[in-house]
Design goal:
By secondary structure, the protein is of the alpha/beta class. It has 3 domains: about 90 residues, Udp-n-acetylmuramoylalanyl-d-glutamate--2,6- Diaminopimelate Ligase, Chain: A, domain 1 (3-Layer(aba) Sandwich), CATH 3.40.1390.10; about 150 residues, 3 Solenoid (UDP N-Acetylglucosamine Acyltransferase, domain 1); about 30 residues. It is built from 4 helices and 39 strands. An 11-stranded mixed beta sheet has the order 10-13-16-19-24-27-30-33-36-38-39, covered by helices on one side. Strand 38 and strand 39 form a beta hairpin.
Length: about 350
């Protein structure tokens, strides 16, 4: 890990110092746990009170405020923090092992330059691997798979036949790409498997979390767009198209043949039924259930998912239902008593 002055860090991220630029920064931490020599960040104003109590030597923030600690002012504090973490620590280093003699690599497979392929990796017939890739133990690469440059595949990940992986893709441990989708034809009470003749296309700079599953298409390919991050235990159904730069939080499920636009964000445990069109820049709150198309730019919440503002109003009503029920019962009693007192 490197040490830098606060002034050097500000220059690195295009920010400015409010305080002492000669402070030496040795590490990074959270605003609550930071100590002398640490730099932290404030991206959410609900933590602003910590500026008065933090023991950090400096805080990255978006505006100047009066407090005891030196500040690094940046347009995007969280991104500036990310850039500083990379500068001080760098990315994870991978052992340079070359190609292990314990790996099983088909004679017809093509491996690029400067790859590190660890023990017990399997690379099947006619697979193509680009330059500078890293495959950890237990990785399985199926026949006719194409993988671009600078990819990292962690232990026990599986890539089925004919799938295409772009460059700078990271696949975390135990992910599965290209398994058959949930496709069966029920005839006379029996479920008959439908062959899946499509594949999966993972575009450049995608990252897939641990244990996520990307099913191959029944007829056409399943696609994960450039720069999207699909995290732990997410399931993407056959033939689904996820646009570029989407964020899918753990345990999201997207059913088959759904199309998702660019820059969408799905919270944890969101469920989306099949054959829908989700527009661009859509945000869906955690545990929402989506059963209709969503236009561009909408923020959705609830199950079934409706616009977030309306959902919050519905929830406010739900909290008052016991009192409302009691009021209705009292009104019914009053009406009944009034009716009984009326002359016949």
């Amino acid at each position: 890990m490197q040490q830098k002055t606060l002034g050097q860090l500000a220059e690195h991220v295009g920010g400015k110092v409010c305080g002492d630029p000669k402070i030496v920064i040795k590490s990074v931490s959270t605003i609550e746990q930071a100590k002398e020599g640490d730099i932290t960040f404030l991206a959410n104003q609900k933590y602003e009170n910590y500026l008065q109590t933090t023991n950090a030597s400096a805080v990255i923030t978006g505006k100047e405020t009066k407090n005891k600690v030196s500040l690094l002012i940046a347009d995007d504090p969280y991104f500036a923090f990310r850039e500083i973490v990379v500068l001080l620590y760098g990315q994870r280093k991978h052992k340079e092992s070359g190609i292990s003699s314990k790996a099983s690599i088909a004679k017809s497979a093509k491996i690029g330059k400067d790859c590190n392929i660890y023990d017990f990796v399997t690379i099947s017939d006619n697979a193509t691997v680009g330059d500078r890739c890293v495959f950890y133990p237990g990785v399985f690469i199926g026949p006719d798979v194409e993988i671009g440059d600078d990819c990292i595949v962690y232990p026990n990940a599986v890539i089925y036949d004919n799938c295409k992986i772009g460059s700078k893709v990271i696949i975390q441990a135990n992910a599965t790409i290209g398994n058959d989708g949930f496709g069966f034809s029920t005839h006379k009470g029996e479920h008959h498997k439908i062959p899946h003749i499509g594949a999966v296309v993972i575009e450049d700079e995608v990252e897939l979390g641990s244990g996520c599953v990307i099913e191959r298409g029944t007829l056409d390919d399943t696609v994960i767009g450039k720069g999207s991050k699909v995290w732990d235990l997410v399931a993407i159904g056959h033939g689904t198209k996820i646009g570029p730069y989407c964020l899918l939080v753990p345990q999201v499920g997207v059913s088959g043949s759904t199309t998702v636009g660019h820059h969408c964000v799905f919270g944890g445990q969101v469920g989306i039924v099949g054959h829908l069109n989700i527009g661009n820049c859509v945000k869906i709150g955690a545990q929402s259930g989506v059963n209709n198309d969503i236009p561009d730019g909408k923020i959705m919440l609830g199950s079934p998912a409706i616009e977030a503002g309306k959902t919050k109003r519905v929830w406010n009503v739900i909290k008052r239902l016991p009192e409302m029920r009691k009021s209705i019962q009292n009104l019914e009693k009053l009406i009944n008593n009034t009716d009984k007192k009326k002359p016949s």
